């Protein structure tokens, strides 16, 4: 495990799934970890396992929370994992309210933290990593506006990076797009829906995804990305069970 004792890492959406795996990996590496999520019980369980982790129960989409937390901790890295579980159904079975769930959550969260990181601004050399989804590249016809919202998260990171460069801030914005995985509510919802559509059991569908992304693998991938020189960092990465692959 890479030792990161001088690093302060804020994980937004650390209560479950990949976010919890990322927070755990950085805590084990010796980094100073701030874990933010809406679910207080899940954060308490994380802190029981890793007492040095500092927790914040808050709505990740709230700009005042983002402003306050960034100003208080001045993190070296902000990793944004939070988002909503999409409603899984065909297009004609959606209402606009169900179709737009991830626009109102995921896009707003990415916009909020990217904007506040620029307005602070974070210290030169800081990084903001937005966890999007492989659906941003391939689509996801049973999850309403989910794929489009995740593609927009990628654009937000790109726009923020351009503003950082123009202003000479030296704050790096990167997008990571994980492939579908059973290691979280979003992936499980997708697996159930697409397995049913294909006439497969969930286990059989998951076998098609192997090697699958685990929370531990996601955590190590973020550590690998954080220890990579910014000059060698890509604007976006696909994350699979084999690890990170830069997007061109």
From TrEMBL:
<dbReference type="InterPro" id="IPR036291">
    <property type="entry name" value="NAD(P)-bd_dom_sf"/>
</dbReference>
<dbReference type="GO" id="GO:0050664">
    <property type="term" value="F:oxidoreductase activity, acting on NAD(P)H, oxygen as acceptor"/>
</dbReference>
<dbReference type="InterPro" id="IPR002347">
    <property type="entry name" value="SDR_fam"/>
</dbReference>
<protein>
    <submittedName>
        <fullName>Short-chain dehydrogenase</fullName>
    </submittedName>
</protein>
<dbReference type="Pfam" id="PF00106">
    <property type="entry name" value="adh_short"/>
</dbReference>
<keyword id="KW-0560">Oxidoreductase</keyword>
<comment type="similarity">
    <text>Belongs to the short-chain dehydrogenases/reductases (SDR) family.</text>
</comment>
